[in-house]
């Protein structure tokens, strides 16, 4: 097979993945359970922001809700990309979806592209449900062209940095019930991420831990887009570190895009019709 033919085959897989991702998104948004999940956290965050009305950041006259909202936006991007895809991998393994993808040329590439698009779109729905009403609740936020462009870029980088990693991690799990471990791990990573309080208030070793993972950088990026420049004084180096933020997210994106297809292919090689049937029987016996 020539280089041109291989390239054409990969692009065909990408197009198929985009089509699959769009169809899965439409199905997800029509599913009551998925819709409730996508809207539950934005509603919870809005209630929290409502309780913050009238409160200010200690030592300033800056609204506390305005300080917290950008961090919630960054956390929502990371949470949407890291927790959802892993659970679908286990289900797709048990119902034979991955086995069919393995049998398709460049099927794993198309499968990964489809997951990125699907979770980007569903996460975007959650963000819109959060941001639009939250602007009315949390004042003092920056709202201009720079804010919009930067938030879009952070969202795109965030999805590329988190969804492939989640797919790779989900491929290592044997059962859908084990995805709760990833949910717990994701929640633990939020602790040193500076989402709910300035990272500079943490011990230095925890600051370094937080800076390794996407949550911190997504929160920092959202704050840089939505908060005035003066609020950078509570960040590390008293700077938004925008270049470093995109660099770290870019590294995670490259790592995920390289690892996810490899792990998916290795996992799919261990699957067969009989193992899928056994997994499906076990799945049904559990009352699902």
From TrEMBL:
Localization per Swiss-Prot or TrEMBL: Cell membrane; Membrane
Record keyword Phosphoprotein present: no
Broad class of where this protein is predominantly found: membrane
Membrane topology: Multi-pass membrane protein
InterPro entries membership: ABC2_TM, ABC2_TM_bact-type, ABC_2_transport, Nod_factor_ABC_transporter
UniProt keywords, alphabetically: Antibiotic resistance, Cell membrane, Membrane, Transmembrane, Transmembrane helix, Transport
Transmembrane segments: 35-52, 72-91, 112-136, 148-169, 181-199, 245-264
Superkingdom field: Bacteria
ABC transmembrane type-2 domain: residues covered: 33-267
UniProt similarity note: Belongs to the ABC-2 integral membrane protein family.
Name assigned to this protein: Transport permease protein
Species this chain originates from: Promicromonospora iranensis
């Amino acid at each position: 097979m020539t280089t041109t033919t291989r390239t054409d085959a990969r692009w065909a897989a990408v197009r198929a993945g985009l089509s699959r991702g769009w169809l899965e998104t439409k199905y997800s948004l029509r599913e009551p359970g998925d819709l409730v999940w996508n809207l539950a956290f934005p509603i919870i965050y809005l209630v929290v922001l409502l309780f913050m009305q009238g409160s200010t950041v200690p030592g300033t006259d800056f609204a506390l809700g305005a300080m917290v909202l950008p961090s919630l936006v960054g956390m929502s991007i990371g949470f949407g990309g890291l927790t959802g895809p892993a659970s679908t991998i286990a289900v797709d393994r048990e119902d034979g979806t991955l086995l069919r993808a393995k049998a398709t040329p460049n099927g794993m590439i198309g499968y990964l592209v489809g997951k990125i698009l699907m979770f980007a779109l569903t996460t975007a729905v959650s963000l819109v449900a959060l941001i639009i009403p939250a602007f009315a609740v949390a004042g003092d936020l920056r709202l201009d062209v720079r804010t919009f462009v930067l938030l879009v870029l952070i969202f795109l980088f965030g999805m590329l940095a988190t969804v492939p990693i989640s797919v790779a991690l989900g491929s290592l799990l044997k059962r859908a019930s084990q995805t709760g471990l990833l949910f717990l791990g994701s929640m633990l990573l939020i602790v040193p991420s500076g989402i709910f309080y300035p990272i500079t208030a943490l011990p230095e070793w925890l600051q370094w831990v937080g800076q390794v993972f996407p949550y911190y950088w997504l929160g920092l990026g959202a704050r840089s887009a939505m908060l005035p420049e003066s609020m950078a004084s509570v960040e590390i180096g008293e700077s938004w570190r925008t270049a470093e933020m995109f660099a770290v997210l870019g590294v995670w994106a490259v790592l995920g895009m390289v690892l996810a297809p490899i792990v998916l292919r290795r996992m799919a090689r261990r699957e067969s019709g009989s193992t899928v049937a056994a997994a499906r029987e076990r799945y049904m016996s559990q009352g699902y």
